[in-house]
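A favour, since you know our structure tokens better than I do. Would you make up a two-line entry for one protein for me to read? Write everything out right here, beneath this request.
=====
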Amino acid sequence: MLKVRNGGGDATPVTWEAVRPLVEQAVQEVLTMREREGHALAVELEGRLGGMERGAALIAERAPLRLAAELDRLKKAVAELAAGVKIDEQRLALEVAVMADRVDITEELVRFRTHLAACRQALGGDAGVGVGKQLGFLAQELLREVNTMGSKANDAAITQAVIA
């Protein structure tokens, strides 16, 4: 038996059976609200994942172009610095290969896309409460990959995509 205070300060006895329907209704309303909010958040996050995916596609498209531009830039810079001295093309090609390896973002793009897929899987799954922690972890991993791409970019279009 529960006791509920009335307006005068006195306690009125109330049975669980009398209160139970109100508690069950309140619980059901909270669960319905959480489901509605979760769906709205999933839709919002899906839109943001799509934007990140489009950014990754732009970066993947731009990455090989920036290497070719970097090669041209290096050739011009070396020609200027050499001031008419013959340049060893093999040595230049080797230096460009080393530079290309250092700034290659293929691995980061692969991991980024894998994390995006994992986010979608978490959003579409039935993970319940744990999905927030999983998405938080994946957000950190996405940020780590995009930061690495940005630091390796040396290209305005890629930098803009990273910032976006």
